[in-house]
Design brief:
By secondary structure, this protein is of the alpha/beta class. It folds into two domains: 173 residues, Glucose-6-phosphate isomerase like protein, domain 1 (Rossmann fold, 3-Layer(aba) Sandwich); 119 residues, CBS-domain, CATH 3.10.580. It is 44% helix and 18% strand. The protein contains 15 helices and twelve strands. Strand 4, helix 6 and strand 5 form a beta-alpha-beta unit. The radius of gyration is 29 Å and the shape is elongated.
């Protein structure tokens, strides 16, 4: 009788989880040496590997590049046909081979030795062709694969991927790489939206609904209708922010509208936000206050309106 699919899945996942635990326990001072080697690089990290190790190499290069460590994948076979010219003495080569004997890596490894380019290796065999040439060799625990036959890269690729993530995050933390830095490399998609700043989405200039304190309410209502945000900011003669008029303020002062001016019905000291705050914070404040927009002011000029952000601006980019 064949093994149920769910049993196979659990066996594979548990085998890979156990492999990761063994990898974590096996890390030693060579990991610190590897991070130092990468930190001291004046160029890029050239990540290379063939087959499944090549696929993992591409992901590691992408993770490094997106977290503040310039990196590039170079295919070892293409390197032997001209792409070695992409690699400079300022770079560090990160070569990945589970066995350490991938023949496709030979020319690239030899090139790194000829031109004194630092070589970091990831392999399970320190005495392999790759392991013997490395300046720093990160060893994978010598385990079988999760398939049970040893022919399907699974434990080995999972450990290599995790080790690449560990290197990238160690470098990121050392460099104090912030979410704002991360956003610079990820402007698109959901991640880019989550890391958008208020200044990226806010309305400025002629789009702002502004009136002075002494204008008639009728004029303030006209600005609300014209600008389309449902609010108008109220400023003093000197241009300082003193209040805001919302639909709620209008409803509460219906008996005054005919003869009142803006200061008579405004809500003083409106809620504001800074332009460099994350847009996600703006959404949180608007949800908590049950309002639909926020006036934006600079911390060093808290009485001057710099912009306005509306909940619709946030929803449009996938927040909220």
């Amino acid at each position: 009788m064949k093994t149920p699919f769910i049993d196979t899945a659990r066996r594979v996942i548990r085998a890979e989880a156990d492999a990761l635990i063994q990898l974590a326990d096996a890390l030693d001072g060579r990991f610190r040496d590897a991070v130092d080697l990468l930190l001291n690089s004046k160029g890029r990290v050239i990540v290379t590997g063939i087959g499944k190790s090549g696929h993992i190499s591409r992901k590691i290069a992408a993770t490094l590049a997106s977290t503040g460590t310039p990196a590039q994948f170079v295919h070892p076979a293409e390197a032997s046909h001209g792409d070695l010219g992409m690699i400079t003495p300022a770079d560090v080569v990160l070569a990945i081979s589970n066995s350490g004997e991938a023949p496709e890596l030979a020319n690239l490894v030899a090139y790194s030795r000829r031109y004194d380019i630092p070589l970091l290796g990831i392999t399970r065999n320190e005495q392999s062709s790759l392991g013997r040439q490395c300046d720093v060799c990160l060893l994978l625990p010598s385990l079988g694969e999760a398939c049970g036959t040893g022919v399907v890269p699974s434990n080995s690729t999972t450990m290599t991927l995790a080790l690449g993530d560990a290197l990238a995050i160690a470098l990121m933390e050392h460099r104090e790489f912030t979410p704002e830095n991360f956003r610079d490399f990820h402007p698109g998609g959901k991640l880019g939206a989550q890391l958008s700043r208020v200044e990226d989405l806010m309305h400025t200039g002629d789009a702002l609904p502004l009136v002075s304190e002494d204008v008639p309410v009728a004029a303030a209502l006209a600005v609300i209708g014209q600008k389309g945000f449902g609010v108008v900011a109220v400023t003093s003669e000197a241009g300082k922010l003193t209040g805001i008029i919302t639909n709620g303020d209008i409803g509460r002062h219906l008996d005054k509208l005919a003869d009142a001016c803006a200061r008579d019905i405004m809500t003083p000291s409106p809620v504001t936000i800074a332009p460099n705050d994350l847009a996600e914070k703006a959404v949180s404040v608007m949800n908590a206050r049950q309002i639909t927009c926020l006036l934006v002011v600079h911390p060093d000029a808290p009485d001057t309106v710099a912009g306005l952000i509306h909940i619709h601006d946030c929803l449009r980019v996938g927040l909220g």
